[in-house]
UniProtKB/TrEMBL annotation:
Residues 194-459 form the SAM-dependent MTase RsmB/NOP-type domain. The keyword Phosphoprotein does not apply. Residues 1-26 are annotated as: Disordered. It comes from Symbiodinium necroappetens. SUPFAM superfamilies: S-adenosyl-L-methionine-dependent methyltransferases (SSF53335). S-adenosyl-L-methionine binds at residues 312, 352. Keywords: Methyltransferase, RNA-binding, S-adenosyl-L-methionine, Transferase. This is RsmB protein. The active site is at residue 405. One of its GO terms (biological process) is RNA methylation.
């Protein structure tokens, strides 16, 4: 690991606020000028984001790079994206360290950036950057010792009495309330595994448009252009790119995109649409269509003679559903976008309800910091209302699928259970192959984003009494879960005091362990978003 004091000292000389300057064609001078540009643009984005709590760091990043568009190349854009998005992901951990060594300065954009570059970046993509890119242009020379202390300091000492929730929150950069909820619902081991997964870059996954081509044909076409692709494990429509987003234009410059041969869509999102088991000729209602990712897949499922009705309360989104993407996807004959809230019944109704989106934190780094715990109850109430509305549009014998991209029980199981209480005999559980009617997709298990699904079939209330396919799953006993957390907490504390040697345990509770570093590095990083 680099020495922060020397890095700051060596790179602070020759700082140019005006951007990169070519000095007689000297390669070292050119690298140094680019490094200063990377730092300046990164700071502009971070300061803008931190000045507006709850704002989107990706918007701040795009704005900062747009302002300097003329001076940025692909290399410098990637370096800026690594820093800005990396700080957003690791902000909880970085702020914890700064608060320990410099109380009151845990939201300083320049300190966060410099601490990230020295402490976090070397184990992510150090080999892709020139050494001059380290801390070029730093003005925080008076903070050298503080940075050095923060860089060498462990997250927690062996005698620290931090709770397990606090350790999870700091180690994997999560809001404390979210760490507490995950521990309570998932248990300690799964919660720490999920936290680690949320700090790793998500896969780049494509969904093949089978209305225009086949998965094998698209794989061959991509291969001819030097792009490796691998069929997804569960979705028969998916391909993931193991080498990440292609350079020189990204996914949107790949052969076939402009012809509508594929869309970018996480496999988990594809699995949600497949959970409807929509069949050719059926009428499907996508009740919260959003931008249409699942809508297009539903069209492929009901083709050639079925029909998909898409509805969203956002008028702008409804207009987009009939835009260029729909034309590329060749779904005009299969898709109807409702102008008003639908009233006709359908064979299948999909409710991908608005949610906290905490299951996709790794794709949207600032989402974890934008969400407030006080919002969860109102979100859940809205979800239940939408689900009840949509359930009235299911034919007798038809299917209803409720889904979110959240991993909070209050938005998932709790909403599904409350709906069952209100629905009474009208709906019976419709199980997956596992025998359960609810399913959760986890980043650290399936490799997808985090999603929840619940399914029911509409009953003929006049002639059938409700027959649950399986008994209601017994909820985890809160007291029992609390005891397991306490025991795990005690085990962690004892292991640390005795000098823990378990690589599995170390990789979960300490991001700096060798195992965690090898996992965190991954095949690629947030470079692609540059």
């Amino acid at each position: 690991m680099a020495n922060p004091s020397s890095a700051v000292n060596e790179s602070s000389a020759g700082s140019s606020p005006g951007g990169p300057q070519r000095e007689n064609g000297d390669p070292q001078a050119l690298f140094a000028a680019k490094a200063i540009l990377v730092r300046d643009v990164s700071l502009e984005a971070l300061r803008s984001w931190l000045a507006s709590p709850g704002s989107d760091v990706e918007k701040a990043l795009r704005k900062a790079m747009r302002i300097r568009h003329a001076t940025l190349c692909q290399t410098t854009r990637s370096a800026v994206a690594r820093r800005v998005l990396g700080v957003a992901v690791a902000r909880g951990r970085l702020s914890h360290l700064l608060q320990e060594v410099a109380p009151g300065h845990d939201c300083d954009a320049e300190l966060l950036l410099e601490l990230f570059v020295v402490r976090e970046l070397p184990r992510v993509l150090e080999e892709l950057e020139h050494p001059c890119f380290a801390l070029a242009g730093s003005q925080k020379t008076e903070w050298r010792q503080v940075l050095a202390d923060a860089c060498s300091r462990p997250l927690f000492g062996p005698n620290d009495s931090a709770t397990l929730a606090k350790r999870l929150s700091v180690a994997w950069s999560l809001p404390l309330w979210m760490a507490e909820r995950w521990l309570q619902h998932l248990g300690p081991l799964s919660a720490f595994q999920l936290g680690r997964a949320m700090c790793q870059p998500a896969r780049i996954t494509l969904r093949v448009n089978t209305l225009r081509t086949t998965r094998l044909e698209l794989m061959q076409q991509l291969s001819e252009h030097g792009v490796r692709s691998i069929p997804t494990a569960e979705s028969r429509f998916g391909l993931w790119l193991p080498d990440g987003r292609p350079p020189n234009g990204g996914v949107w410059q790949l052969p076939g995109y402009s012809q509508g041969l594929f869309e970018v869509q996480d496999e988990g999102s594809q699995i949600l649409a497949l959970a409807t088991e929509a069949r050719p000729g059926e009428r499907v209602l996508d009740y919260c269509a959003g931008r249409g990712g699942k809508t297009w897949l539903l069209c492929a499922l009901v083709a050639p003679h079925g029909r998909v009705t898409a509805w969203d309360v956002d008028e702008d989104l409804r207009k987009q559903l009939l835009g260029a993407r729909a034309k590329r996807a060749s779904v005009a004959e299969l898709l109807e976008v409702a102008d008003t809230k639908p009233s006709s019944q359908a064979d299948v109704v999909l409710v991908d309800a608005p949610c906290s989106s905490c299951g996709v934190c790794r794709r949207h780094p600032s989402q974890r910091w934008a969400l407030q715990e006080s919002e969860i109850d109102s979100i859940a109430a809205q979800q239940l209302q939408i689900l009840e509305e949509a359930s009235q549009l299911v034919h007798v014998g038809g299917r209803l699928v409720y889904a979110t991209c959240s991993l909070l029980r209050a938005e998932n199981d709790a909403v599904a259970e409350r709906f069952e209480q209100l629905a009474g005999d009208c709906f019976r559980r419709w199980p997956f192959e596992s025998g359960r009617h609810c399913r959760t997709l986890m980043p650290h298990v399936e490799g997808t984003d985090g999603f929840f699904m619940a399914r029911w079939q509409r009953q003929n209330k006049a002639s059938e009494s409700r027959q649950s396919i399986m008994p209601v799953a017994t909820a985890r006993n809160d007291a029992s879960m609390g005891e397991s957390i306490i025991k795990f907490e005690e085990a962690v504390s004892m292991s640390l005091k005795r000098g823990c040697t378990s690589p599995t345990l170390l990789s979960l509770i300490n991001p700096e362990s060798p195992v965690a570093q090898s996992v965190a590095a991954g095949p690629r990083s947030w470079t692609e978003l540059g």
